[in-house]
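<context>
A single protein, sequence plus fold
<entry> Chain with its tokenised backbone below
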Amino acid sequence: MLKEEMKTQGEDIEPGEATAYPPSQHGEILPGKESNYDPVFGEGGENSPKYRSLGFLGTIVLMMKAQIGLGVLSIPYTFDSVGMIPGVLLICAVAGIATWTSYMVGVFKLRHPEVYGIDDAGRLMFGRIGREVLGAAFSLSMIFVSGSGILGMSIGLNAISSHGTCTAVFVVVCTVLGFLFASIRTLSRISWVAWAGLACILVAFLIVTISVGIQDRPSSAPQEGEWVPDYKLIGNSSFVQGATAVSSIIFACSATPAYFAIAAEMRDPRYFTKSVIIAQIGSTLMYITIGVVLYYYCGSYVASPALGSAGPLIKKIAYGISLPGLAATTTICIHLPSKYVFVRILRGSVHLSSDSLIHWATWLGCTFSVTLVAYLIASSIPFFDSLVSLIGALLGTFLAYQPSGCMWLYDNWSRRTDRDWKWTTMACWSGFIIAVGTFITIAGTYGSIVGIIDLLREDGGSKPWTCADNSI
């Protein structure tokens, strides 16, 4: 291992050989080294979009914003299903697995610089079928998340305006905003949206957390007589409730597939692992703090989304501050699948890195198409919790767990001469990740679908394409 770590830039490396500090990648921007060629984006000209311009801090904030977004809004509510202690343990376990799966994305990208997205990884491991399945799953996952982001923004606008107009109008407004911001062409230029969004959503949760701590009781609790928080240290949930709760937590930590695109636009992809660790520690601490404090003071009366837990006034303030954060999540999650389709269409063409009419028509066509599908999802599945858990189970787990285990096996299975205990341990761990991911995908999807069906059957519940207030 030490020998591998001492390798310097520029030295020859055997195919498939792992290094802790791999040589510089094509297109990597390093002092004293200029190169316009990239295995993904091709040869860039002077006026081409600077795809490989994402710095270390920008990478961290994009990762944290991809993590801390819609998922955190449902975490306090999941504690009511499983209990506070199991909830904290689940967050730690899921975050630990997410750290390893995200780390594998960086390792795989460095070993295979021609990989842009998870579909390219699928092509290497499973051929054309793997490419199409993982590519379609990634696109659907991001589109579903952007749809839930549009839904969350419409809830915020309803809360701020006291249902000032038809909810369907708010959904359209949020959709248009998402399209405009997502049409910015490079992640480095979008990073300022992530900075603003992350700061706003953290401030909003800080206000709600402090407010529920100093108030006598949450807004939805009985307002007369003595009241004591009815939080549960250990929950007594059904299988469906437990599966839905686990899926929601996985959704909060399921940004792993998006990290391929982030790594592809980094100036120096060797900083990827450090960025992942910092982003994962920060998001995990935030999840635990928000979940424990809000559930401790609110108990079963915690709202979902959690920003509505502290009463009408704080709800308006919190949603007003958090709207840029929800908009940032929507922007990033529209941009990433649009960029995936865009690169897939124009890869190998001069139009990928030019300002031609074909370039702009293709790019705007991709962002518009993705935004349109996200709008249809936001309007047709108006249940925030159920939508979040469905995404986490059906797509988040499938994309984050199974491919990561397969990536380690793909790169290391051919090591026939040094299969020591470390190799055996990692092979067993990779198989475990694949098995756990498969089980959660099936069980969580079942629980989420049952939950959506039950909500649709309830009288007075939210309905698709409705004008009713969805912030209540």
User: Anything to note?
Assistant: Residues 1-35 have pLDDT under 50 and may be disordered. The two ends are 57 Å apart (CA to CA). The chain has 15 helices and two strands.
